[in-house]
Amino acid sequence: MTNRRKSRTKFAILGFLASKPRSGYDLKKAIEKSIGFFWSESYGQIYPILSQLVKEGHAIKLPIDETSGRKRQQYAITDAGIEELKDWIEKAAEPQTYRNELLLKIFFGHQADPDASRKHLEEFKTQQKELNETFKGFQSTLPDMKDQPLNHYVYLQATINYGILMTEASLKWANDTLRMINRAKS
């Protein structure tokens, strides 16, 4: 399982390096601001993978810019790294394993007071509503892609649409579950 996670981390990093050179710090911030809703990486994952990418010839270390205030090591993708990224994108995605603490608590909810499950579901609804608003805010900043050539905005729109639809489905599930709990006799 660890090897799979590292290999996916490798491709997340290559994807960001494909747009421009970045430091480990820059990669972490870019991940948080863009794909952080569905993919996260820690510094503890990023820095070892950067070293691995350099050893594999998929990235290079750039000279440190001595003129800038922050002297961070920057990395750039190589042609071999771009080919590695393209090859990975073209392969089928592995099935996802799913861990969800809320679902685990709901599954065993009969072992506690139903108010605990109600509270968890209400908190979940609040989180999902906020996420949905965030995704819709992102969506509103994108250009209209109707009759436009295929470009990175189309792919960005696809991931934002996924977030909108998933949060809407999650809200429906939470409301349905609350109704079931409230109709059942305690």
Please give a handful of descriptors for the protein shown.
186 residues; Arc Repressor Mutant, subunit A; three-stranded antiparallel sheet; 5% strand; elongated
Please give a structural write-up:
Residues 99-180 form the Transcription regulator PadR C-terminal domain. With 186 residues, the chain is mostly helical. It folds into two domains: 2-90, Arc Repressor Mutant, subunit A; 101-183. It has seven helices and three strands, in the order αβααββαααα. Strands 1-3-2 form a three-stranded antiparallel β-sheet. α1 (2-17) packs across α3 (43-56) and α6 (114-140) packs antiparallel against α7. The chain is elongated and about 65 Å long. The chain starts with a helix and ends with a helix.
CATH names the topology of the largest domain as: Arc Repressor Mutant, subunit A
- Major β-sheet annotation: 3 strands, antiparallel
Discrete helix count: 7
**Span between N and C termini?**
41 Å
Percent range for β-strand residues: under 5%
Total number of distinct structural domains: 2
Question: Strand order, biggest sheet?
Answer: 1-3-2
- CATH architecture descriptor text of the largest domain: Orthogonal Bundle
Protein name: PadR family transcriptional regulator
InterPro entries: Tscrpt_reg_PadR_C, Tscrpt_reg_PadR_N, WH-like_DNA-bd_sf, WH_DNA-bd_sf
Domain Transcription regulator PadR N-terminal: 13-86
Domain Transcription regulator PadR C-terminal: 99-180
